[in-house]
Structure formats: structure tokens, C-alpha cells
Amino acid sequence: MEHLIPHAWFAAQSQLILLLLTLASLAVVAKGADILVEGAAGAAYRLGMPKVIVGATIVSLGTTSPEFAVSVMAAWNGNAGLALGNAVGSIIADTGLIFGLGCVLAVLPADRFVLSRQGWVQFGSAALLAAICYVAWITMGAGAYLGRPVGVVLLGLLAAYLWISVRWARQRTASERVARAAADAAVGGEEDAVEHAAHRSLSVLFGMIGIGIVLVIVSSHALIGSVGELALRWGVPQVVIAASLVALGTSLPELVIGLTSLRRGHKEILVGNVIGADILNVLFVIGGAAVAAPLPIVEPGTSIPEIFLLLHLPTMLLILLLFRAFIHFAVRRGEFRRIYGVPLLLIYLIFVMIPFFLD
Questions:
Q1: Smallest Cα–Cα separation from 277: which of 174, 160, 173, 158?
Q2: DSSP secondary structure string, 277-318?
Q3: What DSSP line would sit under 165-213, residue for residue?
Q4: Best CA proximity match to 51, nearest among 259, 215, 227, 272
């Protein structure tokens, strides 16, 4: 995206143009999310798959693809250290901000079948990454890195995850799907999916997902770029911009899609997209970047562990452990209580505020 719309372009525009671009980007990102959610819900109905599975696979693959591309290109260009921090930061934002906010705004469904499987893959992949990083640091010290063999293993686990997700989805009995359709129809979600799927082929529905993802990602980048440049011109401190806009920027597509899925009555897509994006940030983004080039864990030329080891990984593990505990209680009730979102949001806000005190 930096090559498509470089920051220098935003800096060359007048304040009026930037304001108009901000408003236009907000409109486009909302429309793109509408198209994506409608296509995902219709595709789920056509395929006979739960919407939470579609959110955890198809939608998540689309929203994490730009992060994959950025991380791989950064690794090829000799800036491989960005990949680990960006991916782990996205996991924290997805679970803390997006799921936390969605949970506070609405009672989210807790699908025992899915959360007992994909939920453990989510936690397990993050725990595996943390273990690899800490073992590498303990054994290699200042020269610690994730090598290409680690990347190959993570990409292999990604292929296995996608394959088994489809198998898990098809293990649903017809009675389970009928029961879910009846429950969704009571809130209007499945009724919309049936209506849209009835008039559109699978190719059209997947096209809608693709178009929606492109619109959301491009408009999100334009929105962050224009707002960031306006903030600079209005005298907002750099540390504030870094701790807010930059931290939010990589997860803005997931946030918009999650809030749109709530508004359209497809809450499962939010749950699935958060879980799927967390898994893919480890297996897809970090795996691909590590194959492209070794990823340093400790800042080159120093013997002091980066903030990545001292803050990012512990925060990621804490927030996912808490989320795992909430899943345990939620599957018994069939839903996530709104109070569960509060500690997740608090952890995310503390994580974002820490740079203010370190600056």
C-alpha cells in the first residue's frame, strides 16, 4: 500500500483535499464492508458452512493478505524485524480492541463446535510462536532470529489448518445447520443470507468478498494516511500518532468488518474473523516472512531484548489466555457476556498507552 499511495502524496495535498479524502474514505470503507459481509453470509449459506468458519478462513485470509505482503516485502528488503512486531501487534488489536469492543456492543454467539477447535488453534499457534522466540533468544542471545525452517513449519501448519477447517465445517450434521438457520432467522441474519444467496451464484458471492476486501483495505490506508497528515499539521505529537493511528491502522479492516457484521446481524463473522486473523498472523504472515528472510528477534547490534520480547509477546499471551478462559465459560452459556469485553479493551488500551511513558 505504501507503494500504491506513498506518504509523500498525502503530504503534498491541501487540508481541504485531505478532509474530503477522509470523508470519502469513511464512506468507501463502510460500503466495502457491507459488500464483504453480504457476500460472506451468502457464501456461507450456499456452501452449507457456518458463517463463523467463513469468517475464520475466507474473510481472514483476505484481511491478512496485505499484512502478509507487507511483511514478506519488508523481509526481502532487509527490514525483516517489522514482521514480528506487526503480526503480534495485530493479534493484540484483533482480540483486545475488535473482539473486546464487539463483545461490549452486543452479545456474541459462542459456537461450541468451532470455539473448541479453532479457538485452541488460535491459542496454540500464538503459544508456539512465543515458545520459539524465547527459546531462540535463550540459546542464541543477541543474534536470535527465526530462520527459514521455522517459516516452512508455520506455512505447513497453515495448510493443515485450512484443510482441517473445511473438514470440521462439513462434520456439521444437517440438524445442527437447520437449528442454526432457525436461530439466525429469528434475528434476521440468515433470512438476509438466504435472500442474497438465492439470487447470486457462488462466483458472484466470492467476487463480492474480493471487491469488499479491496475497497476496505485501500480506503483504510487512505483514511489513516489523510488523518495522520492532518494530525501532523494540526500539531498532534508524533508519539500520539504512533500510539493511536499507526497501532490501529493494520487492524482497521478487521475492525470495520467486525462492526459491520454486528450491524447486519451476522455476529458470527466477527467472532470467526478475529480467531482466524489471529491464527493467520502467526502461520501466514510470520511464516511467509520467515521463509523470505530470517526474522531477527533481538535488535541487531545490541544485547538487550527488544520491547517485542518484554512487552509484545507477554501482552499477546495474556490477552489470548484471558480470551481462552472466556471461551470456556461462553460455550456453556452459548454466548459471550458483554462484561467479557471490558478487560480485553483495558489490556489493549494499556498496551497502546505504554509508548507514551517510554518516549
A1: 158
A2: HHHHIIIIIIHHHHHHS-EESS-TT-SSPPHIIIIIHHHHHH
A3: HHHHHHTS-HHHHHHHHHHHHHTTHHHHHHHHHHTS-HHHHHHHHHHHH
A4: 272
CA 287, chain centre distance (Å): 16
Confirm if 265 and 46 have CB atoms less than 8 A apart: no
Distance CA 252, CA 84 (A): 19
- Which superfamily does CATH assign the domain made up of 7-354 to? NCX, central ion-binding region (1.20.1420.30)
Residues 324 and 254: their CA atoms lie apart, in Å, by 20
pLDDT (tens digit per residue) in 105-147:
999 988 887 788 888 999 999 999 999 999 998 998 877 888 8
Q: Is the pTM of this model over 0.90?
A: no
CA atoms within 13 A on the CB side of 50: 33
3-state SS class at 138:
helix
